[in-house]
Amino acid sequence: MSAAVTIAELAKHVGQTVALSGWLYNSRSSGKLLFLIMRDGTGLCQCVLEKTDANADMFDAARHLGQESSLMVTGVVRADERSTGGHELTASDVQIVQAVEGYPITPKAHGIEFLMKHRHLWFRSQRQWAIMRVRATIIDAIRGHLNSNGFVLIDTPIFAPSAGEGAQTLFQVDYFGEPVYLAQTGQLYVESACMAHRKVYCFGPTFRAEKSKTRRHLTEFWMVEPEVAYADLNEILAIAEDFTCSVVQRVLRDHRAELETLGRDVSALEKIQKPFYRLTYSEVGEILRSDRVREMLNADLERTKARVAELNKLIEDKEAERAAQGTKKWKQEKLAQEIVEHREELADREEEVRNIPHHAELAANFEWGSDLGGSDETIIARMHDRPVFVTHYPRACKAFYMKRNADDHRLVNNFDMLAPEGYGEVIGGSQREDDLDVLLEAMQAQKLDQADYEWYLDLRRYGTVPHAGFGLGVERTVTWLCGLKHIRETIPYARMMGKIYP
Ligand code: 4AD
Ligand code: MG
């Protein structure tokens, strides 16, 4: 009997006969040789089957297998530098588990709508496979870093009786006839826990009824929220900095191959080192209104317009070549695929051409007092090669629980961490208001019903201390580290406005 192994384990079995079990990713044949590219969940491996008099039936059956047929292949492992994954199998036996035809996701390019509708199958493709592996490691690195730095995991409820962030983004559910909400954050609950355990975190799904269809927003996303008693803003910034570096390092250590599959510029991630940049909200306002930003956006617009023209020309030329007489079938297919890709990029670039002037206007007209918009964050994030902590926002535009600044009562001791290369906000956090009277005043100003928060106010009545924490969004982090354009590919089943299937 040959040993059943996975593709990831092949290095330990060079020269031995092994059995792989998996699915057919791709195949081609040339005369008496059949090349089956197999995937088994741990990697890809090319299995080469040679036709002989004895195996002619098996060879023919294997040759006609469609993409994603399930199969088992036995053969001898050979090390081969040029081969995907570095090994090849010289096959002696192919057993078909299920022969299939018409797998919907072919190697040719598909539109994003189609792929999202086939998410249950799309998982199997190389890019999606790579993203999910990085996601799993990010989650593991988050837990690992916090667990080994004295943080205690405290699970917080998902049914919440009142708002934790803003009332505008609550999902209401019927709780035995009572209206309750899906948690937007576990923060208020981990605040109570940090008074018991000092350093705590919660980590789970959170919900926001965001009526925005941006490339950064999900209605269901995962957030980790550390909270530390006796920490002020500076101390929590240092914690967020170490935490971020540790997660990035872990991804760089474990996922070079996946990042390469994704075409991620790894050198940009290697720059993620302490210290991160620190800017105040007011300084950001100055930058947004500066000539430097105006010129940067003008140059963007020109470059993007030029690319639009270039893409239009490429599409036109390729359409012509595809339609021309004498173009071989394989060439037509290759052109068709490239055209789909150009069209997708064209749609993105045209949207940018429409948006850039608007973003420039928003930046130029920035007024002190309002929250930073997504485009403002992108601008600041693009101007830096390491994460930027933006601190001290106006109190009026921020959540009620943030600590009022002692020197300037118009400000709070909060921060957002913006990821570089334009990725924008990945972390939001603050020191918390620990003074009962100031907290009550903030709640009144935001028209929150005190009765809903009596338990939370008890934390200020019985042994209140300075404390601080933050929330890091897992999907925003995956988007950044994988270098993706859109958040929708970072979670197994994305929930967005207008998107719930499958
Ligand atoms: O800035 P936010 O809203 O902060 C809080 O919820 C605080 N209670 C956290 C805390 O201090 N304990 O959200 C924190 C992070 C954001 O920086 C972002 O990464 C992510 O959560 N996030 C979202 N991710 C995807 N889709 C959305 N709609 C998100 N809203 C927030
Ligand atoms: Mg935020």
3D architecture notes:
With 502 residues, the chain is α+β, with helices and mostly antiparallel strands. It has 3 domains: 3-98, Nucleic acid-binding proteins (OB fold (Dihydrolipoamide Acetyltransferase, E2P), Beta Barrel); 115-289 and 366-490, Bira Bifunctional Protein, Domain 2 (BirA Bifunctional Protein, domain 2); 293-364. The chain contains 15 helices and 17 strands. It has an 8-stranded mixed beta sheet, sandwiched between helices. A 5-stranded mixed β-barrel has the order 2-3-4-6-5. A 3-stranded antiparallel beta sheet has the order 8-10-9, with no helix packed on it. A hairpin with a 4-residue loop joins β15 and β16. The radius of gyration is 27 Å and the shape is globular. 33% of the residues are buried. Residues 416, 425, 428 line the site of magnesium ion.
Pick out the low-confidence regions.
none
Indicate the mean pLDDT.
96
Helical amount:
25-40%
Number of strands: 17
Physical arrangement of strands within the biggest beta sheet:
7-11-12-17-16-15-14-13
Radius of gyration: 27 Å
- CATH topology description of the largest domain: BirA Bifunctional Protein, domain 2
- Identify the bound ligands: 4-amino-1,4-dioxobutan-2-aminium adenosine-5'-monophosphate, magnesium ion
Distance between the termini: 41 Å
Name the CATH homologous superfamily of the largest domain: Bira Bifunctional Protein, Domain 2
Compact overview of the structure:
The chain is an alpha+beta fold and 502 residues long. It has helices at 56-63, 112-117, 119-122, 126-147, 187-197, 233-254, 256-261, 266-270, 281-288, 291-323, 329-364, 374-382, 436-445, 454-461, 474-482; strands at 3-4, 17-30, 33-39, 44-50, 70-79, 87-98, 152-153, 159-160, 172-175, 178-182, 199-207, 220-229, 277-280, 388-391, 414-419, 424-431, 467-473.
